[in-house]
Design a protein that fits this description.
The chain has 10 helices and 11 strands. The chain has 317 residues and is mainly alpha-helical.
Length: 317
């Protein structure tokens, strides 16, 4: 899970996930990333139903405030897309009542329609079929740290994992024509043949090597990068970002790399996604690593020994 301490709790008559007990409430991004592995299918469905009525202009809140009188914050581009992924995977695992299924599908449809038409923070489907998002001073992806008024990793434009989520959501919804157009643009926009990996943001001048590209190969129902290109990407991520506890958020050879996460709140926020290792990324990496090796029994055994066992050994530290 992305959160180190996630708990399923009740919200009114429904259920939700608290991102960090007791200091965080329920956060959309954390909930829909974690729900697929944290919960059984019936509990996952109950959580998706609890959130289904919160769609506004195609967006789900990134967090509900602690005070019932406060307004939910709709400042995330990926939380809503993770909902679509979680909805698809949950409905494959559990038989829902017709009305419950209708509510979840309606929420997912509203998200895709809202993103296509355009919504808050400049989120919209661009003419090439990819998803653009962000405005100066905003941080809409999971790399959302701020140091005072400064967005450390704004990633305005077209972040790579957002495209992987968007293309997966389109394919899951059966929007094949839209998927095909975006998929073609994805290769042309993000793949850097000379370097052998994907851009982090659709900007040819951005040479930062980050783990977000791994979602193009693993961590989602459908890989959007395949073949030899996918193998080169996974090998590069393994070489430059892998640690026993997860993936670094920035390659050590980057000028902005922060080798230690420490100091006061401002110092820590400035380091949060500039090299700090995040265990939640390990799931997507291991799945990508297996996919480019054909998901063989031998590869799975090697992955358990090399990646999962060292991580499990440190879970109680």
């Amino acid at each position: 899970d992305r959160a180190s301490r996630a708990y399923v709790v009740r919200r009114g008559t429904g259920k939700t996930i608290v991102a960090g007990y007791p200091w965080f409430s329920d956060w959309g991004r954390d909930t829909f990333i974690a729900v697929r592995g944290l919960c059984g299918p019936k509990t996952a469905a109950a959580i998706l139903l609890q959130w289904s009525d919160a769609v506004s202009q195609g967006m789900l809140p990134n967090c509900f405030p602690d005070s019932p009188d406060a307004t939910p914050e709709y400042n995330s581009v990926d939380a809503s897309l993770w909902y679509v992924i979680a909805a698809y995977e949950t409905m494959r695992r559990v038989m829902l009542k017709r009305e419950d299924r209708r509510r979840i599908v309606a929420a997912a449809t509203a998200i895709l329609d809202g993103y296509t038409a355009g919504t808050r923070y400049g989120i919209h489907r661009d003419s090439d079929g990819l998803l653009a998002a962000g405005e100066p001073g905003t941080q809409l992806t999971w790399m959302d740290a701020r140091a005072g008024d400064y967005a450390v990793t704004p990633r305005v434009g077209k972040p790579v994992e957002i495209q992987a989520l968007w293309l997966n959501a389109l394919k899951l919804a059966g929007r094949e024509e839209e998927f095909a157009r975006g998929h073609e643009a994805f290769y042309a926009t993000f793949w850097n043949e000379s370097r052998g990996y994907l851009l982090d943001v659709a900007d040819p001048n951005d040479d930062s090597f980050r783990p977000n590209q791994i979602f193009a190969v693993g961590g989602l129902p459908f890989p959007v990068l395949a073949g030899q290109q996918a193998r080169r990407l996974v090998d590069a991520v393994e070489k430059r970002l892998l640690t026993p506890l997860g993936l670094r958020t920035l390659a050590p050879d980057s000028p902005e790399y922060a080798p230690h996460y420490r100091g006061g709140p401002l110092e820590r926020d400035a380091q949060y996604h500039q090299g700090t290792v995040w265990p939640w990324l390990m799931g997507a990496f291991v799945e990508a690593w297996l996919r480019v090796r054909g998901d063989t029994a031998e590869a799975k055994q090697e992955a358990r020994l090399r990646f999962l066992d060292p991580l499990r050994a440190r879970l109680e530290e």
